[in-house]
Structure formats: structure tokens, C-alpha cells
Amino acid sequence: MQKRSEEKLSELSMPAKKDRLKQLLRGKGKDISGGKSKTDEYSLPENLWRIDAIDSISEFQDKLKLMKDQNISDPFFRVNEGIINDRTVIDGKEFISYSSYNYVGLSGDPIVTEAVKKATDKYGTSVSASRMVTGEKPIHAELEKEIAEFIGVDDSIVFVGGHSTNVTTIGHLLGPNDLILHDSLAHDSIVQGALLSHARRIPFPHNDYEALENILKEQRMKYKKTLIAIEGVYSVDGDIPYLPKFIDIKKKYKTFLMIDEAHSIGVLGKTGRGIGEHFNINPKDVEIWMGTLSKSFASCGGYIAGSELFIKYLKYTAPGFMFSVGMSPANTAAALAALRTLKTDTNRMDKLRKNFKYFRNKAKTLGFNIGESNQTAVIPVIVGNSLKTMKMTNFLFEKGINVQPILYPAVAENAGRLRFFITSEHKENQMEYTLMQLQEGFKSI
Ligand SMILES: Cc1ncc(COP(=O)(O)O)c(C=O)c1O
Asked: What domains sit in the chain, N to C, each tagged with a CATH number?
């Protein structure tokens, strides 16, 4: 039989001629198929090359179908039509909202909004370059200086995303000969940073500093640098680590300590300075203070605060800073105005504390399982498996309450929960109504 490469083009029909030409062009003019067609040569199952057929995507599709079959409406990506504080508007209807971490109500506050307008008028909507080159604006340094002062360390650096702050900082600082020990409930951004670094990564049981110490006894001397990464408030359980013990351990085993304060800055401590203030420790005992600007600071982005030289090093070398655009004037101005407001208006902190104490105590009195949540604005109510949790979410939604579920695999399958973010803006009657409806929900789902 004549080989395809030997076929004369002139003898082929027009469509076959086109196909043959295309095939030859793909092979840069040479037939490299050895007589097989391209598709034969790379004969692979669809789940390896068709995007919608890859295993993770088709499993996702199955989950969507299951939800649809069970008649469960999707609680995600609901469109909130205005500012979210204690309330929100979805589909034209008002709800009591527990789904946003606008902890001290500063997103939507007129002072913050006005500062954003002014900064945008003055600097535009983007800094249009990395700060290292031409993106630097006076408000960047002002914000960084004030964050550092607020925490009680030398300096800070702001990044455009909270998640990317952790990824780039951890990924950049640690390397293959190093060790990262992080709380087993640490945020994804800490884990991603650790993976990027190629350091050995060992999670230790949640908040268990004794287990951490046991790992260090065995492992510390096998590695060069060691980082312990914990959070100020854990975002799924709403509990806090006993910081003084972690500081003792980090000193004894000569490691660095990093604290992600996403949910503790502007929440813990009498004046909102976070877990350091809460435990009255020396802020300089912690090398890496990390926080996000998207919660109490009413903006978007993250920061790392610490020693002057360390921060300068990050500014000149951290990939997620150097090779990324500077924080927008609007976001910078929002965080700066929010921080200044928080410092002067201590009433907000008092209201926040009063609210989360009220909600927690009442929830406990009513017999709800709120896990270990204590002294924080994150209060989970554990419902049960994913299906039950989704039903409870929808039950409350029908009663005018918007709260997000946290489901497996983020938590164990039997520990699905509703996560209530309490803010300074909530009113006692809203919280009381919510807890009563929750009680009704447990009876009827
Ligand atoms: C503990 C923790 N760290 C980091 C982040 C990432 O922050 P952002 O959402 O601002 O990127 C989050 C997000 O909520 C978080 O909960």
C-alpha cells in the first residue's frame, strides 16, 4: 500500500487535500507521523487533554449535578447589591448579613470612601507600574509606616493581595534545606507558600504547642532555617493560639515565628492591635507579622511587618512585590483611612467586642455547638454533614438571614458549619432573631 507521505496531493479530493496540507504544515513540512495520523500518535484518554473532561473538573460537575438533583440552591456567588455591614441586599431583598468580615464597619464608612475619592482624583485608578520602578506614591509609605507603628515594629510592606502576601513571602524566604511547621488549620495561602518554597513542610495538630515542641526536638537540627507559622484567629473555628508558649518555643529552638493576623488585627486587643496586644507580648519577639487589608482595614491586599532590614529585603527581592503592580491608590487610601479611624474611634472596637460576646454567650446558652470559638468575631455553629448544613443555610436564607456554610473538604464531613462573622454594626435584636431562627432550623431540617 502506498504510504500517505508518498501520496500525490494532486490526486486527492479537495477536502482531503486541505487536511493533508494542514498535517504537513503542523509537521513543519515533514511528515513525522511514520504513517500514523497525528491523533493516533498522541492517542491519550480525553481526561488528559480535554479541559472539561479532566478528573477534577468532571468531579466538580458531578457535585453540581448532585446539588441540582437534591433541589439545593447554590449559596455561592450570590450577588450583594450594595455595601455589606450588618445588612445586605440580595435580589432586591434585605437580609441580616453574617457573611462578610467587615468587622468594624469601615468598608462603606463615609470617611474611608471620601479618602478613596481624593486619592483617586489625585493619583488615578492604578499606579500602572511596580512600585520599584515608577509605581511608588506617598500614601504607600504612609500606610506602611502606620501599620508598623500600630503593631509596634520597625516597618512594613504592603502587597496587592492577602493570599499572595503569604505565598510570596514564605515561598521567597524559605528554601529546600529549610523546615516549615504550620498549624494543621493554617490558611491555604500559608500552605501554598510552603509548597512554593520546597522546604520540608510539617503541619502540627491545631494549637498544640506541645506537639509542635516534640516535632522540633526531633527535626530542628536536620534543617537550616525553620519557620513556625500560626494565625492570630483561626478563620474556620474562631479560636486563638496561646501565643506566649509559641514565643518560648521559637526562642528555645531558634526558629522564626510568623503570625497571620487576617482575622485578629482590628479585632483582638483592647485597641485592635491584634494578638500581640491581647497577650501583651513584645511585638519584636515575632519576626513576621502578617495581616490582610481586606477585613478590618476595609480594603484589599496584605502586609508583612517586622524589622527594618527584613522589610527592605522584601521590597527589593520578593517576587510578588517586585514583579507585581503596586497597590492601587484607592486600596491604599482605604486601608490608611480605615487604620486612622480605628486608632481614633475606639468605640468601634468596644461595640465589636460587645457583639461577639453577646452572640457567643447566647448561642452557648441555647445549646449550639460553637466549637472552641472564644473572644473572636468568627463564631461557627456546627450543624453536621454537608447536606444538613446546606439545608440550614437555605432555611435561614428564607428567613432573611445570609450566612455562609463551610463544608467538606474544608472541614470534616460531619463538622459542616455555618460561619458567623460578627461585626461592630450588628444589633442585639438582629442577633437574637438569628439565633431563634437557628433553633427553629434545627427542629425542622
Ligand atoms: C487567615 C487568612 N490569611 C490570608 C487570607 C487571604 O487574604 P485575602 O482574602 O485578603 O487575599 C485569608 C482570607 O480570608 C485568611 O483568612
From this structure: 70-99+347-444 (3.90.1150.10), 110-344 (3.40.640.10)
Whole-prediction pTM? 0.89
Determine whether the shortest distance from the Cβ of 164 to ligand 1 is under 6 A.
no
Question: In terms of Cα–Cα distance, which of 327, 321, 257 is closest to 297?
Answer: 327
Atom of ligand 1 nearest to the CA of 164: 11
Contacts of 43 (CB under 8 A, 6+ apart): none
Taking the CA of residue 161 as reference, the ligand 1 atom at the shortest distance is 11
In the predicted model, what is the mean pLDDT of residues 411-420?
94
How is residue 388 written as a grid cell?
444538613
pLDDT in tens, 148-167: 999 999 999 999 999 999 99
Ligand 1 pocket, 231 CB below 6 A? yes
β-strands 87-90, 179-183 pairing:
unpaired
The strand pairing partners of 158, in sequence order, are 303
Q: How far is the CA of 54 from the centre of ligand 1 (A)?
A: 28
Are 115 and 142 in contact by the 8 Å Cβ rule? The answer is no
- Residues 200-218: tens digit of each pLDDT: 999 999 999 999 999 999 9
Give the Å distances, CA to CA, from 394 to 10, 281, 294, 403. Answer: 67, 43, 27, 9
Letter for the amino acid at 120?
A: T
Task: State the distance from the centre of ligand 1 to the C-alpha of 229, rounded, in angstroms.
Answer: 14
Q: Is residue 237 within 6 Å of ligand 1 at its C-beta? A: no
Q: Which of 357, 373, 364 is nearest to 406 (CA)?
A: 373
| Side chain identity, residue 110 | P
Q: How far is the CA of 162 from the centre of ligand 1 (A)?
A: 5
